[in-house]
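Dear colleague,

Following up on Tuesday's group meeting, I ran the structure prediction for the two-component complex that the binding team flagged. I've pasted the input sequences exactly as they went in, so you can double-check that nothing got truncated or mislabelled along the way. The structure tokens for the whole assembly follow below. Feel free to forward this to whoever is handling the docking comparison.

Inputs:
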Amino acid sequence: MKVGTQILILFLSLSFVGLILYFMKKNKLKEEFSLLWFVLSIVLIIVAIFSKQIVTLFEFLNPESAGEILLFIIAISLYVFILLFSVKLSTIKDQNKIFTQEIALLRSKIESLERSNKNE
Amino acid sequence: MNKILIIIPAFNESKNLKKILPDLKKKILKVDIIVVSDASSDDTVEVAKLEKVFYVSHPINLGIGGAVQTGMKFAVENNYDIAIQFDGDGQHLASEINTLIRPILNDEADMVIGSRYILDKGYKTPLIRRIGMLFSAWLTSIIVRQKLTDITSGFRAWNKKALSVFSKEYPSNFAGVESNIHGYFCGVRIKEIPCKFEPRQSGKSSINFWRSFYYPFKTIITALGVVLRANSFRKIK
């Protein structure tokens, strides 16, 4: 990997870490999610710094360049992230359903009590 | 004397409800009715209020399964012996309700499904949708080891045991396939009986042309998911 490319990846990864920290400070990103993105950023930084060693490590994949390895790692990481988010979304969808049903049933009870109070 | 509740899941069905509710009240005596408005933007709730039936209104749309489950929760909370799903689109007939609940009253089943396809009772389904339904029914029948013909039917009745199971877990969409398999693993006795259905009176069905293609794939994934979770369902039982 060329030095220019390494610097660019390092710059982007560090900017990414900065962005994660900003969202955490503004309470727009929960710790459990920020951890995932931190891991990805750290992986990118490691790949940028130790590109030669990474290519050696992944020699069994017969890569042409460190860029290929980088793309491979990013693709796998994003796949895992999206899967984890889908799991989280499914849980939230279930919770959302329960809340909606409880709210609707409670509202119905309150309205019914209000009606019976008026009649008394 | 059994306490019976008719659950009507409704999403913008005010036009149909104006016909269905008076008809139900006239033909089926001694039952309670609850309209579950699934975030309707029309007068669904107002029609229910006007007809003096119970009503619950979801603040956001949950899909037909979510609306039916809300009705089931209401039934469990208020100690009903039998609950009946009666769709708000005008396809179900009040005159068929007694036939539907008979197997429950005779203790032959915990859940009864009114089927359009056991006998030719004049209900016409578009060919593409029918193929998708046939496949889904075939797959479900294999898993539940019982021949089912109309797994998408929204004309169903449950006793207390089935209500207890489904009020805890019931799918939001494509409820037919999943609830049948889920029920089977929870020890719910299922029975299908022939029933007459009418064409929808107004509005659009949730299963459109494209969904007819999607349905068989969804069935496979749903069936797989429920089979994989079979052990957790047995715990609910």
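Residues 3-119 of chain A form one domain.

Cheers,
M.
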